[in-house]
Amino acid sequence: MKVWVENPNTGEVLHTSSAYLTFVAIDETGKPVVVPPIIAESDEEQRRYRVAGRRHEGRLNTQSVP
């Protein structure tokens, strides 16, 4: 997700922040469910999938440090 702000007087637009969001599928009882994996088809999708995997690995490595 990217957040932008626009100055209404000048029309200047500035990027203020970015974030990656994670969603969890849930069933009718509110419990998480497994969903089919994403199939990255285009070169851009494949690149994004690889980068997301590296971010995920980085978070796992950081969390395991005492």
Please describe what this structure looks like.
- It is a single chain.
- The protein is an alpha+beta fold and 66 residues long.
- It has one domain.
- 32% of the residues lie in helices and 17% in strands.
- It contains one helix and two strands.
- The protein has one helix at 43-63; strands at 2-6, 13-18.
- A two-stranded antiparallel sheet has the order 1-2.
- The protein is extended, with a radius of gyration of 18 Å.
Low-confidence blocks of residues:
none
Radius of gyration: 18 Å
Strand content: 15-25%
| Number of extended strands | 2
Distance between the termini: 30 Å
What is the quaternary state of this protein?
A: single chain
**Domain count:** 1
Return the structural class. Answer: alpha+beta
Tally of DSSP helical segments:
1
Order of helices and strands: EEH
The 3D shape can be described as extended
Give the helix level as a range of percent.
Answer: 25-40%
Main sheet overview: 2 strands, antiparallel
Strand ordering within the main sheet: 1-2
- What is the residue-mean pLDDT, rounded to a whole number? 91
